[in-house]
Amino acid sequence: MKCRFRKSGGSSEAMKIYITCDLEGCAGITHWEECAHGHPDYALAREEMSLEVAAACRGALAGGAREVLVRDAHGSTRNVLPHLLPREARLLRGSSGDLMPMITGLQNEAFDALMMVGYHSAAGEPTNPLSHTFNRLTESILLNGRPMSECMYYAYAAALHGVPLVLVSGDQGICDFAAGLIPGIHTVATKSCVGAATLSLHPREAQARIEAAAERALRGDLRACRIKLPKEFSIEVRYRDHSMALDRSFYPGARQTDAKTICFDAADYREILRFIHFVL
Q: For residues 191 and 139, is the Cβ–Cβ distance under 8 A?
């Protein structure tokens, strides 16, 4: 394990924090077009994403961090405007090709905590008009019978390396999920959803709350955010297209349970990471 656990933040030993940021959970973002390069509204959306992650960086630094690594994890992974980040932050952009692309590099350095900014609800969930998991190819993904969000997937991946997830910001649905998964976590709900509509905080208010929550998270008990991984894993992927289910069913160990669904079981979460890497 790479993590250096401490009871609370603010110690004499400098903390090193990993912040991963997505776009669909940011304040005000409502339509798919806003999240895509080339659309007129994308410039405003990427700026909000950049400002929210910059707020998390400032909060982390105020809470005792001395090093912050920001992972631009949305789509092209070329969204965050670097000049909006604090000078203390490093920025990781581009596709990595590894098994943990939204938190790539976390496995290579010793981090004290993970934060997620702009995260969103899982595929099929009615708490964000942009709900999805990894891409828009699936109707739903269940892990041990529960809707699997990117938050859940990477919280477990971070736990493999001993790194606690201490902050999640995004839609109300993903914040409620995170609070249920990790009782000690800090959350900031930037918006709620009704159908295809969102009701958001003012962007500056969202940023202020994220900054304050990031600082509180590091001044609290990081051990309260540790996750105990299940002993066994069963994942079910339901695609929108039946032909994709047939194609992916040839992954070793996968089994097709109906026209659109494949399942896979493993005792080691690393095998779930590998499975998802190849079937999505």
A: no
- Full residue range of the structural domain in which residue 271 is found: 233-279
* DSSP H helices in the chain: 42-62, 150-160, 172-181, 203-219, 242-248, 269-279
Q: How many domains does the chain have?
A: 2
| Residues 248, 155 within the same domain | no
Nearest to 71 by CA among 62, 56, 61: 56
| CA pair distance 215, 193, nearest whole angstrom | 27
In terms of Cβ atoms closer than 10 Å to its own Cβ (0-12, 13-18, 19+), residue 278 is exposed
- Sheet containing strand 89-92, edge to edge, reads 89-92, 65-72, 15-21, 113-119, 165-171, 186-194, 197-200
**Domain identity same for 72 and 190:** yes
Q: Please give the model's pTM, rounded to 2 decimal places.
A: 0.95
- In tens, the pLDDT along 178-200 reads 999 999 999 999 999 999 999 99
Range 112-133 average pLDDT: 98
Last residue of a domain, one of 225, 246, 264: 225
Above pLDDT 70, what percent of the chain? Answer: 95
Q: What count of Cα atoms within 13 Å lies in the side-chain half-sphere of residue 232?
A: 4
The single residue listed with the structure tokens 């790479």 is 2
CA angle, residues 253, 277, 145, in degrees to nearest 5: 65
Answer whether 105's CB lies under 8 Å from 156's CB. no
Residues in contact with 243: Cβ distance below 8 Å, sequence separation at least 6, in sequence order: none
| Nearest-angstrom CA–CA distance, 74 and 53 | 12
CATH number at residue 81: 3.40.50.10780
Compute how many other C-beta atoms are within 10 angstroms of the C-beta atom of residue 266.
16
